[in-house]
Amino acid sequence: MFNSYQTNTLQFNAAVCNGCGRCCAVCPHGVFSRQGRTITLAHVENCMECGACQRNCPTNAIAVNSGVG
Ligand code: SF4
Ligand code: SF4
Q: What is the DSSP string of 12-25?
């Protein structure tokens, strides 16, 4: 099975994440997992670099170069 984790550009900076959960809500591939206000990259290999999480993150905790994966 293709594992895009080797090639995708998703970067998550937990230090500036405020736990709002928007990334979880908008990601169509369930990449993010939320427990309370703690966000983790549960399935980074599923990221298809659509960019929705980056566009909706209010703290710029996420960076992804769309169109690469
Ligand atoms: S770029 Fe798209 S697929 Fe990847 S984590 Fe963000 S919302 Fe999910
Ligand atoms: S959208 Fe940004 S600030 Fe909100 S939970 Fe996701 S990474 Fe954290």
A: E-TTT-----HHHH
4-57: CATH number: 3.30.70.20
Please indicate whether residue 26, judged by its CB atom, sits closer than 6 Å to ligand 1: yes
Tens of pLDDT, residue by residue over 21-34, are 999 999 999 999 99
Domain boundaries defined on the chain: 4-57
- Ligand with the closest atom to the CA of 5: 1
For 6, 43, 55, the CA distances from 19, given in Å and listed in that order, are 26, 17, 15
